[in-house]
Amino acid sequence: MDSMDAVFKALADPTRRSLLDELFEQDGQTLSALEKRLPMTRFGVMKHLRVLEEAGLVTTRRSGREKLHYLNPVPIRLVHDRWVSKYAEPLAAALSGIKKELEEEDDERQVRSSKRERNPDGVRDLHQDDAGAPLGGDHRS
Amino acid sequence: VFEIYIKTTPERLWEAITDPEMRAKYSFGVQTESEWTQGSEYESGVPGVIDIAAGENIEVDPPRRLVQSFNALWSDEVKSAGTSRVSWEIEPVGDDSCQLTVTHDQLPDDANSELFGGWPMILSGLKTLLETGEQLTTPGSLRYSGAAAD
After folding, report:
1. Which among A91, A96, A78 has a CA at the least distance from the CA of A8?
2. Residue A53 burial (C-beta neighbours within 10 Å; 0-12, 13-18, 19+)
3. Is B28:B45 a contact under the CB 8 Å cutoff?
4. What is the pLDDT of residues A109-124, one digit of tens each?
5. Partner-chain residue, chosen from A70, A74, A89, that has the shortest CB–CB distance to B123
6. What is the 3-state secondary structure (H, E, C) of chain A?
7. ipTM for the assembly
8. Among A3, A59, A81, whose Cβ lies nearest the Cβ of B124?
9. Residues A69-88: pLDDT tens digits?
C-alpha cells in the first residue's frame, strides 16, 4: 500500500512532526504563521508542507487570499486500524494512558535526568514522540 | 477537515452516506433518516435509545456534495455548542477511486472534541465497508453498536 509509505516517510522527520504539532495546537494556519513558529526559511517550511500534503496529513483550504493548512488525522487512523485489532485496542489505549500519566507525574517531580540514565540506548525518546498514540504503547506488550 | 481516499464510485459513496442501513454499519449503529432533498430535515440516532444529531440539508447535489447543519444531541454539554456545519464533498480520482472530504466547521472556539473527534473512526470504517464489504471494529463500534448507549 504505497499511500502508507508516504505517511511513514512524512512522519519520519522531526520538523514535519513539529509542523503537525503546530496544526494540532491551532488548526487552519497560513504559511506565514507556521514559518514564524519554526526556525526555518519560508522555502523550507513549504517543502515540508508539500511532503505532508502528499501524504494526506495536511489539507489546504482557500479563505479569501489566504491559504490555510489543516491537520488531517485520517491517514494516522488508518495506520492505527491496520494493526491495532479490536482485542488489542483497549489494552493499547490503557498502556498508552498509563505511560502518559506516569510521565506527566515524573515531569512534575523533575526526575527526567535519572530516567534517561535508565534507558541509555535512547529508545525512550522514540516512545516519547509517540506519547498518546496506541501504537507507541503496543511496542511494550 | 478530514480527507480520505476510497476505492469506489461517487454513486456508491453517496449511497453509503445517505442509506440508513449502510450508514449505520460504520457509524456505530447510528441511523440517519432523511428525504435527502434540499431544505429537508435529517435525524440521526439509535431509535428508542439515543438521539445523536439533527439538522437541515442545506445543499444536496448527488453524488458530489452534501452540506448539512449539525446540532449534536447526545449530551447537554454538546447541545450547548449550538449549530455547526458538516460538508461532505466527493471528488472522483482516476477511474476507480474517490476523494471524500468532510469539513466540520462553524464550531465554537472552545468546542468539545467529542463533537468532531469521531470522524477519523467513522471515515476509516466507511472505507473498510466500501472496499471490503466488511465492518470495521473500532472502540466506537464496540461501545455503541447494538448495546444501549449511555
Report:
1. A78
2. middle
3. no
4. 765 555 445 544 544 4
5. A74
6. CHHHHHHHHHHCCHHHHHHHHHHHHCCCECHHHHHHHCCCCHHHHHHHHHHHHHCCCEEEEEECCEEEEEECCHHHHHHHHHHCCCCHHHHHHHHHHHHHHHHHHHHHHCCHHHHHHHCCCCHHHHHHHCCCCHHHHHCCC
7. 0.73
8. A81
9. 999 999 999 888 888 766 66
What's the CA gap between A81 and B121, in Å, rounded? 9
Residues paired with residue B89 on neighbouring β-strands, in sequence order: B65, B101
If contacts are CB pairs under 8 Å, which of residues 99-138 in chain A contact chain B? Answer: none
From the list A27, A74, A90, the residue facing B3 with the nearest CB is A74
Enter the C-alpha cell of residue B79. Answer: 447541545
Model confidence pTM above 0.80: no
CA dihedral A99, A104, A107, A108 (to 10 degrees): -140
d(CA A48, CA A16): 6
User: Is B1 in Cβ contact with A74 (below 8 Å)?
Assistant: no
- Assigned C-alpha cell, A97: 494512558
Residue A73 at interface with chain B, using a CB cutoff of 8 Å: yes
Assess contact for B84 and B104: CB atoms under 8 A: yes
CB-based contact B120 A86, cutoff 8 Å: no
* Nearest CA distance, B142 vs chain A (angstrom): 8
Cell of B27: 457509524
